[in-house]
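Pipeline run #58 for the internal structure catalog. This entry was flagged by the ingest filter as a single-chain record with no existing model, so it goes straight to prediction. Upstream metadata was stripped on purpose; only the residue string is passed forward. Reviewer on rotation: M.T. Logging verbosity set to normal.
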Amino acid sequence: MISVIDIIDQKRRGRTHTREEIFALCEAMMQGRAADYQIAAWLMAACLRGLNMDETVWLTEAFVASGRALDFSGIGGALVDKHATGGVGDKTTLALAPMLAACGAKIAKLSGRGLGFTGGTIDKLEAIPGLNASLTADEMRAQVQRIGLALSCQTEDLAPADGKMYALRDVTATVDDIPLITASVVSKKIAAGASVIALDIKAGRGAFAETREEAQALAKMCRDVGERLGKSFITVISSMDQPLGYAVGNAIEVTEAIQTLKGQGPADLTELCLTLGAVTLAKAGLAPSAEAARERLQASLADGSAYGKFVAMTAAQGGDVDALSDPALMPQPARVNMLPAWESGYVAAIDPLLIAEAAKLVGAGRQTKESPIDPGAGVMLFKKVGDPVEAGETLVELHVGHGAGDADALARVRAAFTFSSTPVSPPPLILEVVQG
């Protein structure tokens, strides 16, 4: 039996692990033979000394092997998946998944809850009254076979070694490491069973990768590891230098996603969905080219079929379908406070992190995975970068949750905005697309 101490010492000295050593480390962790402090020591050594491509592939394989993989064989059609590295106001999954399903793809999407400055797709889904976002593997399979779409929270037996290791990374300053991020992301996508996977990697102030270069390095490693393990990864690098869309919260983000599915959503959110969706459908063989796929996706918005898939999914998962067409039936805030613009000009910048902090302060976010959230809370923007603004015009609405305060949140929102006296061009949204 390979000693955990020896494995730690090997990496501390900067030596390359064997496949057997990495599997032994994960097995020891899962069986309780490796203490948390030993795994934490190895994580820090891996961050400082690095993991090469082989080690990253083996760690990904060990994560997948630690649990069960979802089986969607025999359901027919192309099973595709999408993952984003986190962002502020990112409700892309809620709009893109129904669009893909309306164009013939099969979507079984496992998502997470919000933590830190990023919002979670499951929190947003659960803002729909009655919706069950905790489907079993059999329920997901049956629903995908019936309507082509299921969105649910991650199961405990999906790459559980990654879950254990990530919990330690989160408290040992070892989250921001490209090989560890790659193994975490790719292992969950492989275990989820899709054949074509699109990764939306955010770059900017409101992302884990603050620079385009960091995002490109992560994108390349995810593609390379995926290829080694027989999976096709498409990577899109998109900007997160301002919130995506106008809504940051839970119920209000669902409403904005619905508006997008009806062809009335924000331009940036719609464009990101079309870009991601087009390359995904083309790679899956459901369209002859990305251009043709984009036309099909646009048609699904125009003819109502994409919105119809969202309604069908909501009904299948026990949600109140009436709430989709009547926002008054969605969770409501305790009160709404408006922040008027304090000068005229043009919006030059909106700091997404400060907007996310404000949303958390009014009740839309959580400090830990167990913290409750208020689904009716959030921040609604009325201006984006490049927009003209007049002093006194409403800039932001704070949707304050029950029991939450708003003074600190208002201060953060005010600090998030920078104005210019001359016209400003909005930042580019799509920075890079690599179809794999």
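catalog note: The first helix runs from residue 4 to 12.
catalog note: The mean pLDDT is 92.
status: ready for reviewer M.T.
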